[in-house]
Amino acid sequence: xxxxxxxxxxxxxxxxxxxxxxxxxxxxxxxxxxxxxxxxxxxxxxxxxxxxxxxxxxxxxxxxxxxxxxxxxxxxxxxxxxxxxxxxxxxxxxxxxxxxxxxxxxxxxxxxxxxxxxxxxxxxxxxxxxxxxxxxxxxxxxxxxxxxxxxxxxxxxxxxxxxxxxxxxxxxxxxxxxxxxxxxxxxxx
Length: 189
Ligand code: ZN
Prior knowledge:
Helices cover about 35% and strands about 20% of the residues. By secondary structure, it is an alpha+beta fold.
């Protein structure tokens, strides 16, 4: 099984340069994306949804035209190692998830996924060998239909200038911008 057009080792290199390390989660994510594509009904414009913010979004961004920045990848963090590709207008698609009931044959993957071993106890080489061998065998797939509220385009509602910081912000956020309402991640000096 190739990961889209990449051989396994080739994909590892892509992951290393994009993600910063050859993280097992991104590599497994590559097989998940491949599996999703193999089960999509036809060519079309597909958007993506990812149910975790760890690792998997990067596999999607590496292998599909969907990125967080272009709005075609939405991360809805539910802490599940799962993603879906769906036709962007009708919402019909496929969901792929890492299936813990299929992990018994791959003990190193299992202990990595369920975090039953410390990082120190983990054997990265064996883990990667098992991921390479397992390919998408540790995943399951199901048909899904994305709920209409997630398909709707977000309409721009107009911008205002925040009276405090003088920066522009969506007027629907209130009388001052979210940053000045206390949502900014910076220490106030
Ligand atoms: Zn402001």
